[in-house]
Structure formats: C-alpha cells, structure tokens
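Good morning,

Attaching, inline, the backbone tokens for the sequence recovery test we're adding to the shared suite. The designed sequence is right after.
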C-alpha cells in the first residue's frame, strides 16, 4: 500500500531526472524517489520512531514542492500536522530543508525551525 502511494505520488510530482537539492551550499544530487524518502534510515538504524518521523517528513516535503500535489494530498498534510506535531510532539515544518543523514536522538518536545 505504501509503495503504491509513493509511486502515485512520483507520477504527479517528479519528472524523470528530477534533481533534489540536499543542502544550501552543495551541488544538487540526483536520486530517485525511494532513495529520497529513505535517505535517513541508515543514520537512525535502531530508532524506529526516528525513521518513521523522518520518512513522513520527507514525504510531506516532497508533496510541498508542487501546488497540484498539495491539493491532491491535502488529507496527508493534515494527517502529518496532527500526528507528528500534536501526537508525537515533534515540530518539523514541511518547508524545512535539511540534508541527508538527519538523526533524531529523542522524539519528545523536539523543535527544528527554518
């Protein structure tokens, strides 16, 4: 189910050879949608909560790139806001730009601002 969701998302948002910018000073790196969504899993190996939050964050930041995707996936944006920010208490704004390998050491009362 999750893979089908990601595949349908990639059809609306990402043209072929889409370039993701992973940091403000480095050159853009080409990667596919699955590599982009799971790029933080290695740095959060034993932290399932960190993996889940960062996967949801990468997905919402991918949706945030296109106005059409924001309209189509408005329910997911509301779910992200409710689940991650209110239930888990982690504030990762959807417009936040972070690089590869972000690690969450604790998952309560965490605020990262732009």
């Amino acid at each position: 189910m999750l893979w089908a969701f990601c595949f349908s998302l990639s059809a609306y948002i990402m043209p072929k050879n889409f370039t993701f910018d992973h940091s403000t000073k480095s050159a853009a790196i080409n990667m596919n949608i699955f590599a982009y969504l799971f790029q933080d899993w290695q740095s959060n190996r034993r932290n399932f909560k960190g993996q889940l939050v960062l996967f949801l964050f990468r997905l919402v930041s991918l949706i945030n790139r296109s106005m059409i995707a924001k309209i189509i996936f408005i329910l997911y944006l509301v779910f992200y806001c409710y689940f991650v920010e209110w239930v888990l208490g982690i504030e990762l704004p959807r417009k936040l730009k972070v690089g590869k390998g972000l690690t969450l050491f604790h998952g309560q009362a965490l605020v990262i601002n732009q």
